[in-house]
Amino acid sequence: RTDKIRAGQRDVLAVLEEFLPPLHEGTVVAVTSKIVALCEGRVVSPEDADKGALIAQEADHYLPASANKYHVALTIKDSMLVASAGIDESNTDGYYVLWPECPQASANRIRAALCERAGCRRLGVILTDSRSVPLRWGVTGLCIAHSGFAAITDRIGAPDVFGRPLSMTRVNVADALAAAAVLVMGEADEQTPLAVIEDLPFVEFQDRDPTPEELACVRIDPEDDMFGALLAGVEWRKGGKPGPTA
């Protein structure tokens, strides 16, 4: 649990220094992307921007909010399917809060600082957000950036319990950790934007930031995605610039 984090008032490393307990080898620290964005000042006043236009600007591709009954814009940002390009209004003190400017750079910076502070080499970091999953009520956790461990565990070729080799299975360790962390951090007034995850024998720690090749392996091209037909079945609008204000 932390103090209330408000836009532009503190550096995220100072927040972590004050509120995290002592860390040990083999630990992953989960940090909500929202407090990173708030510390970076990645906020916009509703008086200064139309939310629809802001979503179009922040998204890589988007469907207008009018495309569904809940009037929520579906977007693709950084190769992730999320609502509203990650823009949120909860726990922001009246602002629209965006994702951090560069989530990966933020995760790398946090890991380096925590490793130095704790004297650890095997220490990971994830930046988390909440997302909805198709055909399921409720939100779950998503990792938008990671550092210090392998995000994907490739099990292709490994035998199942009857000796049959797996042909497609890759385990998304980063998203699984994010889902657990977001569950305990909460969505409302819990005021708990940090989580320490321990006892992780299944995590392959790395004493470094992920390489560009490793980051690319987390993402999947829509043409290779088993849900690609669904993604290609709608007319996505190109984001990255202000959209209509209505």
Write up what this structure looks like.
By secondary structure, the protein is α+β, with helices and mostly antiparallel strands. It has seven helices and twelve strands. A four-stranded mixed sheet has the order 8-7-1-11. A hairpin with a 6-residue loop joins strand 7 and strand 8. Helix 1 runs parallel beside helix 4. The mean pLDDT is 94.
Write the layout of secondary structure elements.
Layout lengths: L11 H8 L7 E6 H8 L2 E2 L6 H8 L2 E3 L10 E4 L2 E4 L12 E2 L5 H16 L4 E10 L6 E9 L4 E3 L15 E3 H13 L8 E4 L14 H7 L9 H4 L5 E2 L8
Parallel strand pairs: 1-7
Antiparallel strand pairs: 1-11, 2-6, 3-4, 3-12, 4-5, 7-8, 9-10
Main sheet overview = 4 strands, mixed
Low-confidence stretches: none
What is the assembly state of the chains in this entry?
single chain
End-to-end distance: 39 Å
Side-by-side strand order of the widest sheet: 8-7-1-11
Number of strands: 12
Into which percentage range does the β-strand content fall? Answer: 15-25%
Please identify the structural class as seen in this structure.
Answer: alpha+beta
